[in-house]
Amino acid sequence: MPRPFPWRPLAGAVLVLALAAAPAEAHSIKGAVFGFVTGFMHPLTGPDHVVAMVAVGLWGTFLGAPAIWLLPIVFPLIMALGGAAGVIGLPLSHVETGIALSAVVLGLMVALAVRVPVWLAVVMVGFFAIFHGYAHGRELPLAVGPMEFALGFVIATGCLHLAGIALGLMARWKVGEYVVRAGGAAITLAGLWFLFT
Amino acid sequence: MKRRLAIAIAAAALAAPPVLAHQVMPGVTGLPGAALHTLTAADQVMALVAVGLLAGLNRWRGLGAAMAGLVVGFAAGFADLLYGPTIPQAWLGALVVALVAALASAFNLKPYPAVAFAFAAVIGAVIGIGAQPSGETWADIANTGAGTLLGIVIIEVVPGVISALIRAGWPRVLIRVAASWIAASALMVLAFALVPLLHG
Fold it and tell me: A-chain residues within 8 Å CB-CB of B190?
């Protein structure tokens, strides 16, 4: 007997994404940067960040344990290294390109349901995490409350991972797998859009 | 049932509203004011939570050692504030402890009780050094000392007990994810603090 469709996880994921949704405005912070709320909103107001983070969660779900929990733990840590580089002012070129490429590549991994060894997944996700962290870190010196800003954007990033994982759990059902892989394809297309516009 | 309760507590802790500024609560003074005061310092709260989560990995031995370290460290720091020399940049100690303890917790490294004691002693001392009494009378000093100690013990005990009770499964993963968030935040703020040193 087939298992019932997971309406509850789906509804939970939709709710998380709805709460995380932000007005479609430019990904820029005008004026002073304030504390936790500003930090929390920073990843959410950048669609390039949003789709890449959701892709991390989706891919983690496809890969299964331990990647499903290892990626959301490792990503913030490596992202923080990139953020620290941004705060200190170390040079890193093509940051926006790296962020857009992360959406393209991670979306492809989901769309094609690519399974790689965990260490390779960690290396790939970690590589892209540096670009995401660097972009956030560049904003940190402007923050009135750097601790709260950092905490805000790290938590927002983590929530996007969790939303991706929640959506990815649909892949346990055949119809859900198609939906998730279609989502990966959409993320890749979005990444290409960010890359060439 | 226990697992659901633990998940609910962990979710409530994660959903707690952010601390936005290090200000004393308006209208709340004396011992309660001192107890609440630490809640307004995000770096100290994160360090306490990180040490609690880490100590809980070694269950009650670790948690007991951390509590002892917190009390000893706070007493030393508070005594230094009242009678000793000024220690510059002591607040950086909270960030370093937050980073190291949260990293260890994220990777599920069970600490020796002595390590839990040392981490807690450092953060206790940092908080003690910054626990400026609200007045000069003995009552003010006692209220500030006792209130702050009460507050920081609670902040460390709650995540410590959650960490000690939740040993496996998704709730444990969520704790490790939360620890990685603390470590990441602490790392970036440490970099932020180092900027003046690096750039003169």
Answer: 84
Residues of B in contact with A77 (CB under 8 A): 103, 106, 180, 183-184, 187
- Are B184 and A137 inside 8 Å of each other by CB? no
- Residue pair A103/A193 in contact (Cβ under 8 Å)? The answer is no
pLDDT tens digits for range A153-164: 899 999 999 999
Does the structure show a pLDDT above 80 at B66? Answer: yes
Please state the φ and ψ torsions of residue A87, each to the nearest 5 degrees: -65, -45
Q: Are A167 and A58 in contact (CB under 8 A)?
A: yes
Concatenated DSSP letters of B87-146 = -TTTHHHHHHHHHHHHHHHHTT-PPPHHHHHHHHHHHHHHHHHH---SSSSHHHHHHHHH
Average predicted confidence (pLDDT) for chain B: 83
Which of A124-128, B38-42, B148-152 is least confident?
B38-42
> What is the rounded average pLDDT of the residues A89-105?
91
Does any domain span residue B2? no
Contacts of B7 in chain A (CB under 8 A): none
Contact pairs from chain A to chain B, CB under 8 Å: 98
Task: Report chain A residues whose CB lies below 8 A from the CB of B177.
Answer: 69, 72-73, 158, 162
Question: A151 and B189 in contact (C-beta within 8 Å)?
Answer: no
Residue B90 CB neighbour total at 10 angstroms: 18
Judge: B188–A89 Cβ closer than 8 Å, yes or no: no
* pLDDT top residue among A30 and A153: A153
ipTM above 0.95, yes or no: no
Total domains in the fold of chain B: 1
Break chain A into its structural domains and give their ranges.
Answer: 8-16+32-196
Q: Is A146's CB within 8 Å of B189's CB?
A: yes
Q: Which of B108, B170, B173, B189 to mutate to test the interface with A (most CBs of A within 10 A)?
A: B189
